[in-house]
Amino acid sequence: MGNVCCCADNVDYDGEVNLFHFELHRAVGKGAFGKVRVIEHRRSKRLYALKYIEKAKCIKQKAVANIIQERRLLEEIEHPFIVNLRYAFQDDENCFFVLDLMLGGDLRFHHERNAPITEDVVRFWTAELASAVNYLHKQKIVHRDIKPDNILLDSEGHVHLTDFNVAIHYSEKRLHTSVAGSMAYMAPEILAKKGYTWHVDYWSLGVTMWEMLFHKRPFDGRSSEKLTSSIVSGKLKLPTNVDEICSPEGQQLLQSLLDRNPKTRMACQSRERGLGEFQKHPWFASLDWDKLLAKELQPPFVPDIKKVNFDVSHELDEFLMVEKPLTHTSRKKNVDYDKLKPEFREMEEQFGLYDSTKGQRTSYYPHNQPVLGGTGNDSTMVLPSATNTMTQGSFTAYERSLAGTPGPPPSTHSRDTTVA
Q1: Could you say which of 192, 248, 301, 383 would form a disulfide bridge with 121 (CB–CB 3.0 to 4.6 Å)?
Q2: Any idea where the domains of the chain sit in the sequence?
């Protein structure tokens, strides 16, 4: 179990990228709008994650605009602590994102299986995530769905923000009012319908940090109404054993991130100085930020990639035909796009081809400039596409180790639903 083979003869690797350029390996994830598999580029032998969305299902869920928006936003961004887009293309049935491969699993997985997570680990993750969030805000992007499920570890233990399905360009002139994200991580200004902007990502980061440290969320409710009330007006109560888990400096940072007033919330006074507030905070005094941003610091937690770091049921779904398995298929020729349903035509026309090896990234936001090469600091940074990839030989060993390793116990945590 793991490989789906097809004939690789006559593949034009210098032409437009398509699924025939890749070997399909095991399924590793499943979300509301698509599934994820490990793939290998046949010529370069680099490994990536393939996120693919069935067009018919996307239309049924009224998610066409989300998929196109995600595709465009991912072309704009490049950062060491984000899961970056390398290729985008489509066939007659699916839209495909080829992304950096993260072999370490998501923070939800490790939160459930490796609790308690120490303060040093959470501090390191928070610093890397703050860097990614600050970068997005400088690109005029608000993620809107920061939570443990959307934070992935690479094989070395660095965190990467992923899933831009509900991310948007925020407006400089007006506040947004649409409700999007996962309720438990939503900022109070979203739920209270007061209007919001990029400040909401720092609230979500605070909720995530709290959950990693204390193995529970700061606000709870058995119904959406009670949860909303708790987030909007409930008292923030630190656990009774907080001093055994977190230093006073960490406690102060948590409380400043979970400030209901977005104007006084941590890192929200100035978009340009947001990361600087983290760098100056006493909780991070032990970190060398230059080395952290260059990925030169040793992460305090390194996932064991010889073990399963994802839910193995995703692969069973794929190969036991619960859902239609992914296969290499050629596109229909001479399609009359005028006869397509409007939604199919919209995807054909707007889910554009992207190949990071053949050109620079482009911003779809009219006030942004094209994304250029890295500067070595926390502005726009471009990394080689080999980041977080493995050779075929090492991947084969990884697959063998997974085949002989019992799967993790079934998850008892109900994953949060993302709404848009």
Answers
A1: 301
A2: 19-103+306-419, 107-293
